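Private note to self, pasted from the team thread so I don't lose it. Backbone tokens:
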């Protein structure tokens, strides 16, 4: 059977040796393509038995052109670049790789939260400007962690790890997730709150929701209005979960005291005239929360392993359209 990497150019310089070994050991052939759009996928990959997709969006047009595909695996935790409904209609299993970077993203999130809480960017800029000392009006008010509540929006694997780290540091933790039973929150010793209650109670809000039509711009001016003055916002999930125009307004007004962003509405984020670059209370990182040597290898391995497992008839837990396919 043929397993296609549809957009190898997204990992320039990588030879796909990890995937090739796993796929060939499973008795299949790995085919490397560099498709930059759906038209190229249709032209080059229509006979695929399995698709490995890095970032190229796959909608109904390309999915319906797949003549015999059994599984489509997205390199990563999120799978918003794939039209799951179209794949389900074709009987194609859609898989993600949900665990490969949990410790990395969790630690990066915690780093952004702590850096914002302790005004580290502002302190660095002050020292570089020749200003020294922790007093005066140049620093945002800092508070003891035991007096602060962190609100987690979404309570999946990464969010739970963030909560565990921060709880050990002395923060109180609350979380919102409409898809989980109360028992999950009880087991983690985390307060389960409805979204509006979390907005009003949290001193720090960290976003970990999946990106869907329903969650697009879920953090917007209406949400900010419900939050505490001076709230800290951190997003290491997906950029479009937050309306950047509304966040900029909230930062300028003081409603949001600081923000830590690893993801953006439009990526790559390189707009040198963007207001974020003129704000000393906004910490920016270039969508790297998931990165480490170990997580990269695990991503390559688990992507290939998922395809081989499905082609071999094995039921695996990371089929995201399991319910829709009646599995």
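Design output:
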């Amino acid at each position: 059977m043929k397993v296609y990497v549809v957009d190898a150019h997204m990992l320039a310089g990588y030879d796909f040796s990890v995937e090739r070994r796993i796929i060939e050991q499973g008795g299949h052939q790995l085919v490397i393509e560099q498709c930059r759009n759906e038209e190229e996928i249709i032209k080059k990959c229509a006979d695929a038995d399995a698709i490995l997709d890095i970032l190229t969006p796959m909608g109904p047009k390309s999915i319906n052109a797949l003549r015999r595909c059994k599984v489509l695996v997205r390199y990563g935790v999120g799978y918003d670049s794939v039209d799951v409904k179209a794949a389900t209609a074709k009987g194609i299993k859609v898989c993600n790789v949900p665990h490969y970077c949990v410790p990395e993203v969790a630690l990066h999130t915690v780093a952004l939260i702590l850096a914002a809480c302790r005004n580290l960017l502002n302190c660095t800029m002050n020292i570089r400007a020749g200003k020294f000392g922790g007093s005066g009006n140049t620093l945002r008010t800092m508070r003891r962690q035991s007096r602060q509540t962190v609100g987690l929006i979404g309570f999946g694997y990464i969010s739970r790890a963030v909560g565990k780290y921060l709880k050990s540091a002395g923060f109180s933790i609350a979380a919102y997730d409409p898809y989980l039973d109360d028992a999950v929150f009880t087991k983690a010793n985390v307060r389960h709150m409805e979204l509006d209650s979390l907005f009003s109670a949290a001193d720090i809000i960290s976003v970990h929701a999946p990106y869907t039509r329903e969650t697009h711009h879920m953090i917007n001016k209406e949400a900010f209005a419900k939050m505490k003055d001076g709230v800290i916002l951190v997003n290491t999930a997906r950029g479009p979960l937050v309306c950047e125009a509304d966040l900029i307004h909230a930062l300028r007004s003081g409603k949001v005291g600081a923000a830590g962003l690893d993801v953006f509405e439009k990526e790559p984020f390189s707009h040198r005239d963007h207001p974020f670059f003129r704000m000393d209370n906004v910490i920016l990182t270039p969508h790297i929360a998931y990165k480490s040597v170990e997580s990269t290898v695990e991503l390559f391995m688990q992507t290939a392993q998922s395809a081989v497992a499905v082609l071999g008839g094995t039921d695996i837990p990371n089929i995201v359209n399991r319910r829709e396919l009646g599995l």
